[in-house]
Amino acid sequence: MAVDRASKGAHGGELPDLAATIWSRRDIFSLAGWAGFAGVIGASLLAFTRFMFPRVLFEPPAVFLADRPDNFVPGVVDERWKKSQRVWIVRKEDGNLYALLAICTHLGCTPNWFAAENKFKCPCHGSGFKRDGTNFEGPAPRPLDRIKITLTPEGILQVDKSAIFRMAPGNPEAQYPQSILKV
Ligand code: FES
């Protein structure tokens, strides 16, 4: 008598054909092969996408326009460009101006200006700088760098961060007369 592949259940119902519902070994290998293929294609696509969008650090332009000299208060450190440009612009009591790079000369943290104490203080390792950028405490080996500032024909202060004056201890204005804008 021929054996029907579908068996009878305890209550006489048809039991499902196990061979038809459980995957065969060949099916599993086939699926694994397709999964591997899809993985390779996905990884290639990801690599291609990353190639099309390289990790580029977008930095603000090196040259920016600040403000008119009259809008800087003598004796005050102007912090308007600290966050966006990492630059302080200082107007001296005599009216002349200079720009300092807000990058600690120890390991590159951003110092803060404390007007009441008349000093810049680095939060990382405690270096202190006077208002003219001179280092006087902590591990910073030299003063804050100065940046070139000029006046445009329209009378606006232009700061060029690509022209950096690397200061040594001592009179900054004697070292780099170009670091001061006389107005
Ligand atoms: S980075 Fe400023 S004191 Fe170290």
How does this structure look, described?
This protein is of the alpha+beta class and 183 residues long. The chain folds into 2 domains: 24-52; 63-179, Rieske Iron-sulfur Protein. The protein has helices spanning 18-21, 25-52, 82-85, 172-175, and strands spanning 63-65, 76-78, 87-91, 97-101, 112-114, 119-121, 128-130, 135-137, 146-151, 157-165. The strands form 2 sheets. The protein has a 6-stranded antiparallel β-sheet. β5 (112-114) and β6 (119-121) form a beta hairpin. 21% of the residues are buried. The structure holds FE2/S2 (inorganic) cluster. Residues 104, 106-109, 122, 124-127, 138-140 line the site of FE2/S2 (inorganic) cluster (FES).
Return residue spans where pLDDT drops below 50 for at least 5 consecutive residues.
1-7
Quick one: CATH class of the largest domain? Mainly Beta
How many DSSP-defined strands? 10
Helix and strand pattern? HHEEHEEEEEEEEH
- Based on secondary structure, the structural category is alpha+beta
> Helical content, roughly?
10-25%
Question: Shape, please?
Answer: elongated
* Total of helices: 4
Beta percentage is 15-25%
Instruction: Please compute the radius of gyration using only Cα atoms.
Output: 35 Å
